[in-house]
Specification:
The complex is a heteropentamer of chains A (215), B (395), C (224), D (431) and E (226). Chain A is α+β, with helices and mostly antiparallel strands and 215 residues long. Chain A is built from 7 helices and 6 strands, in the order H-E-H-E-E-H-E-H-E-H-E-H-H. The C terminus of chain A is likely disordered. The N and C termini of chain C lie far apart (65 Å). The chains are: A alpha+beta (215), B alpha+beta (395), C alpha/beta (224), D mainly alpha (431), E mainly alpha (226). At the A-D interface, helix 1 of A face helix 3, helix 12 and helix 14 of D. Strand 6 of chain B pairs antiparallel with strand 3 of chain D, so a sheet runs across the interface.
Chain lengths: 215, 395, 224, 431, 226
């Protein structure tokens, strides 16, 4: 009969109208500024740089300015200049590390390709700005975040990274000790870049993007 | 009431001989015609699509689509960047279905490089692709109904469900829309058991949502009046015009790449391919609803059979990736139709030629044929039922 | 489905004076393609569509490829005549057949435009058969036969190839620019296309962009 | 008779109904003070004027009260519509516009005010080459006609601004003119979408005026009057002493009401008949080129028209200001009217939240092939009902049965004819 | 630009944050001393405008989907009174440039902007609208809509989450609330010297002509040595 389909539709909307007052399935709104989505651990927005020592956020960056992320970044939104001493010797840390978040496409490829676990994805998204030129070009100072912050955002992943780094450090120390013992050579620089870490084994509890071979 | 339709570029709709393509439109025949340019800013063009419509009263006597308002040089950029760097760009092709775009691209590159994919990754890909299909078809139904003049209600319900799927995508890949999840030789991350449980829960509830959605729409007399018999597409024209996906199957042609090519692990799943009989807008809508019900079946099976193992081939190389010279065309059954990638490698880190075969662009070929003799209101829903995404049409 | 060689045989039987070459695909995909001479392209396409054993009724993908002029240093066996310009020759991968006397030849390969058609059969559910047509060189009014009269699916895709590569399709019913605006003069997908220099604020430049940036900035001082 | 005296017949409300008025005797003695509250208030305001001026003052008050009341109702309705639409769609709708100067959130009550302030201060644009005069006049004309229709509706016992003998005719005459204003707007805007909308509006007007009027004829026939007040009075009796004898509770009344309801949806350009302003097809239809306060006026007039049609539906079929049950009569009549009006408006919104839009040919087909025949048949049924008024006893159920059959049969037949070729489908699956 | 400082701080400070942008009681009293009527008018005017920002129903690309998502049940932009997505620019207050603006599209976007009645606002949503984003190096992509239009709020992200759009909208509301009716820093639409129409670029043989509107667009230079 003409009209039954219409009545059926009206019943559905009426059910939702009434349901919106008692059924959380039918009232899904989040009152945004007061209530915020619980972001999943994997959520990514823009990259940040991890530093290990909160007292020296710029000096203790894990980044060694190897520019892998710069070259791999699909939209080319990273700009790195390596710091050099007076003689022009590379200091294995960035002097300039800028990310233009007005270009960044949040693809996480920089994180995947970084062999030093130095760049990670931030989850902060409330960054509306009135000035594109001052607000959206993030410098090294703005990008540097502590390891604790990283743990807060991605606890599982960060724990795995920490374990890995500790393992590498131990290995390096062992290697150094082994080297130092037979021939009393001057110790090799301790910077991680001197000895790129091997690709980590996939760990069961913390799936991690494949780390490519070092440059 | 029907006015004789203007001669289309293809009088029978089908090309026969080169002489048939006379584009002359005898305007004197119709008297005063009104030419309306719909778009690129129009609420129902699903983005920045433009149709130059010539009207006799409200009847369409000519319709010329204009493209390119979202032409963002995807293919050129693809040739300027590495294979891996193109992966996030594929997310932005058909921005509703990043997971299937990723997969199509990954398949093309895997073909190009002869890369194997672990079984677990294949299953995860199927799960993600079918979730994407649910997402796309749900949204399409919502948008289609919005075009017919609903005040947002079906669209809201569709997006309510979409958010649930997006939550899954986000917790797995880190992004709601731009997942960038597939890699050459597998997937980027391994889904956790909790995630799989969440998918299971969603799949279990989806049938109920579809029932309610259909109660609101499928039996609605106004919807039927608007969509049944409008925008009829014949099977012969659909095949000739390269129409694929649910649109093709709505005309009754049985061609589903999941069955035909049997890529991935699809041959292991039991599912049916629904076929329409009329080829009209209602069929195109209903085929999608039925496909969603089949997708739920596939998801159930894939979740049940998901094997253990690595998610990414350990030999796979994504950075510094240089496939041997050669070419490959990889295609999958995307929610909108056949999405394919044609790649030519010259041995360098960048593809020599990077071509996207966009389903919705090719499906638009027959837009004019379907709209001739129909009204403006029909043109809007016919366009809606084609299911286009401009990011893919214009690339 | 028949192999491409068999198809070629049958086509040659039907069109004895047609230029037909099977082009091998050196990559792991291994899918060869059939190069068709322009004069017979349309009739061959119609044959492929209507032949009961093939019934390639569905043209999936149409695309252009721009092969620029190349200088190639090739190691060529003296006994064997030089192979037809195949899919990209790679200087880094010389053939490893040390028996025959080899010599290094510097060869100029003239560029050409190519249009590739991927054909499938929806009726018989097989495919693909890959058709290629090529221009003789890269001089500008490049022209190739249109296959739109055979497969409607080519209509927009050929327009796109025309728009981006500048290949004119003879026999196309409505050959206009499709993606770029009508006043646009260039063909942007060609390998030698130069973008308009609309440089602006580039805070993170690399490579070509950095060159552009340098051109625009007044003498860049020390890095900051 | 003096002029004021004549007018006092025309304007029962306007002619002072204070204690001093001779007409005061018309009011039943049982009326509570609450029922008389509007009249008392007006008496306080104009009672001190000389009698010859009172009619003028009273009619002015009536006009001002009408406009103010409906303007605020309009504000509330926009909010209510957004809220109801929101709730249907599982969301709250506007809820955080704070009160100005106070920063106090009031569940979005301030939202319409904010919209109003913004609309008032928005730049007014007239397109180049548009007909400036018509472009300016269209919203005003639309609003004026809509307000005219509001004048003849009895909002309560003796609460009617203009109690004409032929008020029903007046209502539809003024109501039909609103479409003229829509056409003016569409024509004057020099926009193709607007023009298409104008043509649609005319087609819609011609199609739906007829069923609208035809569905009213039975009421006029049964009530024996074209006066809205009389029609309401006639519905004031009770069956078996407690069941309301509203016209909607008869077979012909129900059919008439449904036809009237559907036609009034179309007349007020509401979903699913909002073709002139079809957002997904014609951008904003005849409103495409209107900005700022002119647009707000259109919006307001549209809601006024909707209120007027709902008010008329209440008056003609739903017993006007009558209480549904005798013992509920202590509640003032104007509250009953308001309640019924709001309920009908709520149904309008509910329908808007549920249905897609028809196409123009389907819209006219629905009118000509379904509503008009149904209304005509309903007229015959009413005649039968009127002729069999003296059937009693066992004949009474028979009378109901016959009348119901006379409605339901054609409804099913016409409905089947209308939806020929449409229906749910079954689908096959590939082997 | 002074707004950015006052606006950026209270955004995260809690439930009252939305109102936190408007002048404090003390400031208000101070203002009232100077002219009660004017300040009250100004406040009413700004209050009305800020709580009734109707966006143009205009989507460009990926971000448009997130814009739609922001108006859907989960995020419900209607709470801010902004769910009235008007399809006609004549009734819209806010242009959300949601996605890549290609050179083919740019003239149309500017035309739409010109068709909107003042006071009107512009949000550049997503990387593409701000700078061209990932497609920046493409031949047909406009490197930021601010080359031609005055943008009020930039929301980075690719695409920004719907919450980020809501956040941007709240920033915009705060900006509106802070505007003055008089004085040298009064907004654009209250000045006599600013024209109402922005020049629409034309399609050239290789590029848009002109490639930017110098009255709107002055990019600072950032020297890089590479």
């Amino acid at each position: 009969m003409l009209g039954t389909g219409l009545l059926q539709g009206l019943a559905v909307t009426a059910k939702n109208l009434v349901g919106s007052f008692h059924d959380p399935e039918r009232y899904v709104t989040m009152e945004y500024p007061e209530v915020k989505t619980k972001l999943p651990e994997n959520y990514r927005n823009f990259p940040f740089l991890v530093h290990d020592d909160p007292k020296d956020p710029l000096g203790s960056l894990r980044c060694v300015a190897c520019t892998i992320c710069e070259t791999e970044c699909p939209p080319q939104c990273i700009y790195i200049v390596m710091d050099r001493d007076e003689k022009g010797k590379a200091l294995k840390r960035p002097k300039v590390f800028d990310i233009d978040i007005s270009v960044c496409m949040s693809c996480q490829i920089c994180v995947e390709v970084c062999p030093f676990d130095a760049i990670k994805m931030d989850q902060h998204y409330e960054i509306a700005e009135t000035n594109r030129f001052q607000g959206l070009l993030l410098s090294r100072e703005q990008l540097s975040k502590s390891n604790a912050y990283y743990h807060q955002l991605h606890p599982t992943e960060a724990a795995a990274v920490d374990a890995l780094l500790a393992e590498q450090k131990a290995k390096q120390a062992a290697a150094k000790a082994a080297k130092a013992a037979p021939a009393a050579k001057p110790p090799a620089p301790a910077a991680p870049a001197a000895n790129p870490p091997p690709p980590p084994a996939p760990s069961a509890e913390a799936p991690k993007p494949p780390t490519p071979p070092a440059p | 009431m029907t006015s004789p339709a203007a001669p289309s570029s293809f009088p029978s709709g089908l090309p026969s001989s080169p002489g048939a393509h006379v584009r002359a439109v005898h305007d004197d025949f119709h008297g005063d015609l009104l030419e309306v340019s719909m778009g690129p800013h129009h609420p129902s063009t699903h983005g920045v699509f433009r149709m130059i419509v010539t009207l006799d009263g409200e009847r369409i006597v000519r319709l010329k689509p204009v493209f390119g308002y979202l032409h963002r040089n995807h293919e050129k950029l693809g040739e300027q960047t590495t294979y891996l760097a193109s992966m996030p760009y594929t997310d932005r092709l058909d921005y509703l279905n990043s997971m299937t775009n990723n997969w199509a691209y990954a398949i093309a590159v895997e073909k190009l490089a002869g890369q194997a994919v672990p079984e677990r990754a294949e299953y995860v890909r199927v799960i993600l692709a079918e979730l994407t299909r649910l997402l796309n078809h749900t949204c399409l139904a919502g948008f289609l109904l919005q075009d017919t003049g609903c005040s947002g209600t079906p669209l809201m319900y569709a997006f309510r469900e979409r958010e649930k799927i997006l939550d899954l995508f986000e917790s797995l890949s880190g992004s709601r829309m731009m997942c960038n999840f597939q890699r050459f030789g597998g997937c980027r991350l391994d889904p956790t058991p909790e995630w799989l449980a969440a998918v299971r829960q969603l799949v279990d509830g989806y049938g109920r949502f579809l029932d309610e959605f259909e109660a609101l729409i499928s039996g609605n007399e106004i919807v039927m009046a608007r969509t049944q018999g409008t925008g009829v597409l014949t099977p012969a024209l659909a095949i000739s015009a390269g129409v694929t996906g649910p649109m093709l199957r709505a005309t009754g042609v049985d061609y589903d790449l999941r069955k035909v090519d049997g890529y991935g692990v699809y041959p292991r799943f039991e599912f049916r391919v629904p076929l329409g009989a009329h080829g009209d807008t209602y069929d195109r809508y209903m085929i999608r609803i039925l496909e969603m019900r089949e997708s739920i079946q596939i998801l159930r099976q894939a979740l049940r059979d998901l094997p253990a193992g690595p998610i990414l081939d350990p030999k796979a190389k994504n950075r510094g990736f240089r496939p041997k010279p050669g070419e490959a065309y990889g295609r999958i059954e995307g929610p909108k139709g056949e999405i394919g990638f044609y790649l030519i490698s010259d041995g360098s880190p960048n593809p020599f030629r990077y071509r996207v075969r966009p389903p919705s662009f090719v499906n638009l070929t027959i837009l004019e044929d379907m709209c001739l003799g129909q009204t403006v209101a029909d043109a809007v829903i016919i366009l809606g039922s084609i299911d286009i995404v401009l990011g893919e049409v214009d690339r | 489905m028949e192999s491409l060689e068999q198809i070629r045989e049958r086509l040659l039987a039907r069109f004895p004076d047609a230029a037909l070459t099977v082009i091998a695909n050196p990559g792991p995909a291994g899918q060869p393609s059939l190069l068709v001479g322009s004069p017979h392209a349309a009739s061959i396409a119609a044959f492929l569509r209507d032949d009961p054993a093939l019934r390639l009724d569905y043209c999936s993908n149409v695309t252009g490829v721009d092969w620029p002029d190349r200088e190639v240093v090739e190691t060529i066996k003296r006994t064997v005549p030089p192979p037809p310009p195949a899919a990209p020759a790679d200087p880094s991968a010389p053939p490893v057949t040390p028996k025959v006397i080899e010599e290094k030849v510097k060869r100029h390969i003239p560029g050409y435009f190519e249009v590739v058609y991927h054909l499938y059969s929806m009726a018989l559910k097989h495919g693909p058969v890959i058709l290629r047509t090529r221009t003789a060189d890269r001089t500008d009014p490049a022209s190739l036969p249109s296959l739109t009269p055979i497969w409607r699916a080519c209509e927009f895709q050929e327009r796109e190839v025309y728009d981006l590569f500048g290949i004119r399709f003879t026999g196309h019913p409505d050959l206009r620019r499709i993606l770029m605006w009508d006043e646009f003069k260039d063909y942007p997908m060609r390998k030698d296309y130069v973008e308009p220099d609309d440089y602006e604020w580039e805070p993170t430049p690399h490579g070509a962009v950095l060159d552009k940036a340098r051109r625009h900035y007044p003498a860049p001082p020390e890095s900051r | 008779m003096s002029l004021p005296g004549q007018l006092s017949v025309l304007f029962p409300l306007a002619s002072g109904l204070g204690a001093s008025s001779p007409l005061a005797a018309v009011l039943p003695a049982s009326d509570s003070a609450l029922e008389r509250l509007p009249l008392t208030l007006r008496g306080l305001l104009t009672g001190w004027l000389p009698a010859s001026w009172q009619w003028l003052a009273n009619s002015l008050i009536a006009i001002v009260v009408l406009i103010v009341a409906f303007a605020s109702l309009f504000a509330l309705l926009t909010l209510a519509e957004r809220k109801i639409l929101g709730r249907v769609q599982n969301r709250p709708g506007p809820n955080r516009a704070p009160l100005p100067f106070l920063n106090l959130r009031t569940y979005g009550l301030a939202q319409p005010v904010a919209d109003g302030v913004k609309m008032l201060t928005k730049e007014d644009i007239v397109p180049d080459g548009a007909d400036r005069v018509l472009h300016f006049l269209a919203p005003i004309a639309l609003l004026a006609f809509s307000i005219l229709t509001l004048a003849v509706i009895p909002y309560g016992r003796l609460l009617v601004a203009l109690d004409l003998d032929a008020s029903v005719l007046f209502f539809f005459a003024a109501g039909a003119a609103t479409e003229l204003a829509v056409f003016m707007a569409g024509w004057a805007s020099r926009n193709k979408y607007s023009l298409l909308a104008a043509m649609r509006a005319l087609a819609q007007l011609i199609s739906y005026e007829l069923p609208l009027l035809l569905s009213v004829v039975p009421v006029v026939l049964m009530a024996g009057s074209l006066s809205t007040s009389v029609i309401v009075e006639r519905q004031g009796e009770w069956w078996l002493g407690f069941l309301p004898r509203w016209y909607v509770f008869t077979p012909w009344g129900l059919a008439g009401f449904l036809v009237f309801f559907v036609a009034s949806l179309a007349e007020s350009n509401r979903s699913p008949f909002d073709l002139p302003e079809a957002e997904s097809e014609l951008i904003a239809g005849h409103l495409t080129e209107y900005s700022g306060f002119k647009y707000a006026l259109f919006f307001m007039a549209e809601y006024f028209g909707m209120c007027a049609l709902c008010g008329m539906a209440v008056t003609l079929f739903l017993g006007g200001w009558q209480a549904p049950l005798p013992f509920l009569s202590f509640i003032p009549s104007y509250l009953w009217f308001a309640g019924k009006l709001l309920a009908l408006l709520g149904v309008f919104m509910w329908i808007r939240a549920s249905f897609p839009r028809l196409r123009i040919d389907q819209l006219t087909r629905l009118a000509w092939k379904f509503l008009v025949p149904l209304a005509l048949i309903n007229l015959g049924t009413t005649a039968f009902w009127s002729l069999t008024a003296d059937w009693a006893g066992l004949l009474q159920p028979l009378r109901w049965l016959i009348a119901a059959g006379l409605i339901a049969g054609p409804f099913l037949l016409l409905g089947r004819n209308l939806s020929k070729g449409l229906g749910p489908r079954t689908y096959r699956y590939a082997a | 630009m002074s707004m950015s400082e006052s606006a950026s701080t209270p955004a995260t400070s809690g439930p009252a944050s939305q109102e936190g942008f408007s002048p404090t009681q003390q400031e208000r009293d101070e203002l009232r001393r100077h002219g009660i009527l004017l300040t009250s008018l100004e406040e009413l005017y700004n209050w009305g405008r800020s709580n009734s920002v109707w966006p143009l129903n205009f989507g460009l690309a990926c971000c448009a989907i997130e814009m739609i998502a922001a108006s859907m049940a989960r995020f419900d932009i209607a709470r801010f009174g902004s769910e009235v997505f008007r399809p006609s620019p004549r009734q819209a207050d806010l242009l959300i440039v949601s996605g890549t603006v290609t050179k083919k599209m740019a003239p149309q976007v500017i035309r739409l902007w010109n068709q909107m009645p003042e006071p009107k606002y512009c949000i550049a949503m997503g990387a593409c609208a701000i700078s061209g984003g990932p497609f920046k190096q493409g031949y047909n992509v406009l490197k930021g809509i601010d080359r031609y239009l005055p943008v009020d709020i930039y929301i980075p992200g690719c695409p920004p989450r719907p919450e980020a759009l809501l956040h941007g909208l709240m920033q915009l509301q705060a900006q509106i609330r802070g505007q003055k009716l008089t004085g040298p820093d009064r907004p654009r639409h209250l000045r006599a010297d600013t024209g109402c129409a922005y020049p629409v670029p034309e399609f050239g043989a290789h590029d848009l002509e002109p490639p930017a509107n110098p009255e709107v667009w002055q990019a600072p230079s950032l020297p890089r040595s590479g």
